[in-house]
Write a structure and sequence with these properties.
about 475 residues, alpha/beta, 3-stranded mixed β-sheet, 21 helices, 8 strands, binds adenosine-5'-diphosphate, binds magnesium ion
Length: about 475
């Protein structure tokens, strides 16, 4: 059954075939309709360090697949591809960039060898290269990433918790190239507090002033690099990146994979050394970006570091008010009284994303029922937003403690060298939970489990995955542990 891949690893053809098998499995599991709606345009860009980089043509497809099929994709890829470390989805580049010429071949062979997977089409790969060509559309940055015009400085509501971040962002965007007052700028905050909004505003304003801007989300950066390796244009990727004035990287905590992290580090260093502006956002302090090299962490943390705080009630009410106003422009009959705005801003206390969601739901309710929004209808419309909270950030230590208690062993047992069945099973479950519930890498998890090797962790993860698939009661038990940890 298995492919005749040499000991050195799968070759191109066998990866291609393995990818076909993944597709066949998905089709068989989900049926032709679901498959053709969601998976037909899914492509494998490459495999690097055990991670499969998959691409889709639209942002919507990406978020849909992530929301509904992430686990299934991961399992199927792990089963067929040399990709035990997971799957990363990103949006393929728009076709107009496909003209970017594939460049230098040298110097990449050794790296390319790391990643045996083929690129589906040349265009996909070349498209990932940030174009140095001038932008044709003002909503597209120097790398061809579409920027969201709605996320501007004008639409950003300033309050106590974000005024510092806002002021820094504005000054950076306005400063002439090479004369930035703060470099790098590192923004950190939890979900939905406006990081992406500020980053996009900086990128757009800087672009408006004629600066060459590259805006990346972590997955775009990774995909860009992997695809450039595949098409042997990594040098071009680097050089073009280094030719810009401003590099903006969003959600840096998701950058993973050793050579990509290294590449990211080199890029940051080279740009900073050349006096170029860097703006990075993450969900934690730079020092806690465990995946990144110590030197890069300290460089990112060594500039201006600003935390964006929680949105207070007044700020929430203003943000919601401005959202509703925007919706009213398009739907003049849609009216929401100040009472309702105040109520929603009070109860939807999580973040800006939920406020967006609330505004859209109020609109949907009003247009579907054809009635005015009252406090009662508002309450019904946003009920689930009030209940849902962001899942808690799970700590490896908490996993170890909970699993130890559940199986009547000590945490020290879990970390120890002991190999009796009574200890091995909980240890493997704890490792599995650490991999599923935290963003930590396999080597990092190994370190936190008494200095074990990443292959040990991988073995544990696979073993538990398989066991869960075969044993209903274990499945339920692990599920319960997961829920307890996330509550
Ligand atoms: P993050 O990147 O920190 O997760 P986003 O920037 O994506 O958060 O914000 C989530 C939503 O909330 C976006 O629609 C954004 O425009 C909105 N938002 C957050 N903070 C503000 C603010 N201060 N003013 C206006 N809109 C905001
Ligand atoms: Mg964001």
């Amino acid at each position: 059954m298995a492919d005749e891949a040499g000991p050195a690893g799968a070759d191109e053809t066998s990866v291609k075939e393995a990818w076909e098998r993944v597709r066949r499995r998905l089709r068989a599991e989900l049926g032709e309709d679901v498959f053709s709606s969601w998976f037909a345009r899914l492509e494998l860009a490459g495999i690097l360090e055990g991670v499969a980089y998959l691409t889709v043509p639209t942002r919507f497809l990406k978020s849909w697949l992530e929301a509904h099929y992430a686990e299934r994709l991961r399992l199927n890829c792990a089963a067929e591809l040399p990709a035990p470390n997971g799957v990363i989805l990103s949006v393929r580049q728009v076709a107009r960039d496909a003209a970017a010429a594939p460049l230098a071949e040298s110097a990449l062979r050794s790296r390319a060898a790391l990643s045996p997977a083929p690129v589906k089409t040349e265009a996909t790969a070349a498209a990932a290269i940030p174009g140095a060509q001038p932008c044709e559309r003002d909503s597209v940055d120097a790398c061809g990433t579409a920027l969201d015009r709605r996320m501007s400085f004008q639409s950003f509501v300033v309050g106590k918790s974000n005024q510092l971040a806002f002021a820094a962002a504005e000054r950076i965007a306005a400063a002439p190239a090479g004369q930035s007052p703060y470099n790098p700028l590192y923004l950190h905050a939890g979900v939905g507090l406006g990081k992406t909004h500020l980053l996009q505003a900086i990128a757009q304003e800087a672009r408006r002033q004629g600066k060459r801007v590259a805006y990346f989300t972590a997955d775009r950066f990774m995909y860009g690099f992997v695809a450039a390796l595949k098409s042997q244009t990594a040098l071009a990727f680097k050089e073009k990146l280094r030719g810009i004035d401003l590099l903006v990287v969003d959600d840096v905590q998701f950058i993973q994979g050793k050579s990509i992290q290294q590449e990211f580090g080199h890029t940051i260093n080279a740009l900073l050394d050349a006096g170029k502006q860097i703006v990075v956002a993450g969900d934690r302090l730079a020092g806690e970006l465990e995946a990144l090299d110590e030197r890069i962490r300290s460089r990112l943390g060594g500039g201006l570091v600003v935390e964006v705080g929680e949105l207070d009630e007044t700020l929430r009410a203003t943000i919601l008010g401005s959202r509703l106003e925007a919706l009213q422009n398009a739907h003049p009959s849609f009216q929401v009284s100040p009472d309702v705005v105040a109520y929603v801003a009070r109860v939807v206390a999580t973040n800006g994303r939920d406020l967006d969601g609330a505004a859209n739901r109020l609109l949907a309710h009003a247009t579907l029922s054809g009635q005015l929004v009252t406090l009662e209808t508002a309450e019904a419309a946003i009920r689930d937003l009030v209940r849902t909270r962001e899942p808690r950030r799970v700590k490896i230590e908490d996993i170890q403690k909970l699993v130890a208690t559940r199986y009547n062993v000590s945490r020290a047992d879990i970390l120890s060298e002991r190999r009796t069945a009574a200890v091995v099973k909980p240890r493997q479950i704890a490792m599995y939970l650490a991999k599923s519930l935290t963003p930590r890498s396999l080597p990092e998890i190994g370190r936190r489990f008494g200095g074990r090797d990443h292959t040990t962790v991988l073995h544990a993860v696979r073993k538990i995955e398989k066991a869960i698939g075969e044993d209903r009661s274990l499945h339920d038990e692990v599920d319960l542990l997961k829920r307890m940890l996330q509550e």
